[in-house]
Amino acid sequence: MKNVKNGVDEYIQGFPKEIQEILQLVRHTIKKAAPEAEETISYAVPTFKLHGILVHFAAFKNHIGFYALPSGNNAFTKELSGYTTGKGSVQFPIDKPMPLELIAKIVKFRVSENIDKATAKKQSKKKS
């Protein structure tokens, strides 16, 4: 089996040095906000999982794509209003500072959301 950590490292190493530095900042921010999360490659991009997918991130020509699923975006609509967003995605421009505090808040929200879902699922199984 391929070492997943190396997969994320390989992904990051595939970009120019200045982009690698941004990706490492985003990666470190996610790890710090969700220390129990598993790092993997999913949909060909770095992904963090804890009771399901938490977030994905990826580099593009002019932005870092951050994917916190629709619920992550919906919970932070006001904070994300200055960025290009999609249903479950947000584009952070490469030529601007990464909003690391916002990324951490979104990740913590997603951790809480996934833990709540996992707990509810366990409780409903106990009842049946």
Question: How are strands sequenced across the largest beta sheet?
Answer: 1-2-3-4-6-5
Q: Main beta sheet, described? A: 6 strands, antiparallel
- What is the number of E strands? 6
CATH fold-level topology: Aspartate Aminotransferase, domain 1
CATH architecture: Alpha-Beta Complex
How far apart lie the N and C ends? 37 Å
Overall geometry: globular
Write a structural description.
By secondary structure, the chain is an alpha+beta fold. The protein has one domain: Aspartate Aminotransferase, domain 1, CATH 3.90.1150. It contains 4 helices and 6 strands, in the order ααββββαββα. The protein has helices spanning 4-13, 17-33, 69-75, 100-127; strands spanning 38-42, 45-49, 53-59, 63-67, 84-85, 89-93. A 6-stranded antiparallel beta sheet has the order 1-2-3-4-6-5. α2 (17-33) packs across α4 (100-127) and α3 crosses α4. The longest helix has 28 residues, at 100-127. It is globular and about 55 Å long.
